[in-house]
């Protein structure tokens, strides 16, 4: 199962916390997350496809981590610390187009779950503001 989210904005230089809900296969109901489930986020540069950051469930890492937020409601929390967000590149469009934000990254979250199996959740357009 793969999930795609179109737009996602990270605030540059600040601590960012995002709560995502994992849904059951072929359902709108949230999946129950077990404590044996693992999640790993990889952020890629859209131009070069280079890996910019990797976050996992180890909360001792400087750049950030992923934690189970609400297991019964299928929620995980992604924490990105300023040490990571301050290094991300911000791109804007031209003045005549009112300096709109341009996506510079994409994210893939590898999920290894007991209830839904292995799947990748994708965030195609990641903007930095």
Description:
The chain has one helix and ten strands; from the N terminus they run E-E-E-E-E-E-H-E-E-E-E. The protein has one helix spanning 82-85; strands spanning 2-10, 16-21, 38-45, 51-55, 64-70, 75-80, 91-92, 101-102, 105-113, 117-128. The longest helix is centred in the middle third of the chain and has 4 residues, at 82-85. The protein has a five-stranded mixed β-sheet with strand order 1-10-9-3-4, with no helix packed on it. A three-stranded antiparallel β-sheet has the order 2-6-5. A two-stranded antiparallel ribbon has the order 7-8. Strand 3 (38-45) and strand 4 (51-55) form a beta hairpin. It starts with a strand and ends with a strand.
List the helices and strands and how they pair.
Elements: E1 2-10, E2 16-21, E3 38-45, E4 51-55, E5 64-70, E6 75-80, H1 82-85, E7 91-92, E8 101-102, E9 105-113, E10 117-128
Parallel strand pairs: 1-10
Antiparallel strand pairs: 2-6, 3-4, 3-9, 5-6, 7-8, 9-10
Cα radius of gyration in angstroms: 15 Å
Mean pLDDT: 92
Strand order, main sheet: write it out. Answer: 1-10-9-3-4
Write down the secondary-structure element order.
EEEEEEHEEEE
Contiguous uncertain segments of 5+ residues? none
Number of strands: 10
Range of strand content: over 45%
What gap, in angstroms, lies between the N and C termini? 30 Å
- List the total number of helices: 1
Which sheet architecture does the biggest sheet show? 5 strands, mixed
Oligomer: single chain
Helix content: under 10%
Given helix and strand content, the structural type is mainly beta
- Principal-axes geometry comes out as globular
């Amino acid at each position: 199962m793969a999930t795609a989210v179109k737009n996602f904005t990270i605030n540059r230089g600040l601590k960012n916390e995002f709560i995502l809900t994992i849904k059951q296969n072929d359902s709108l109901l949230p999946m129950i997350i077990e404590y044996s489930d693992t999640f790993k986020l990889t952020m890629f540069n859209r131009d070069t496809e280079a890996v910019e950051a990797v976050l996992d469930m180890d909360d001792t890492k400087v750049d950030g981590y992923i934690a189970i937020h609400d297991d019964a409601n299928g929620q995980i929390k992604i924490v990105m610390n300023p040490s990571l967000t301050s290094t991300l590149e911000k791109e804007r469009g031209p003045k005549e187009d009112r300096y709109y934000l341009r996506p510079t990254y994409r994210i893939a979250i590898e999920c290894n779950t007991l209830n839904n199996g292995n799947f990748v959740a994708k965030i195609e357009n990641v903007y930095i503001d």
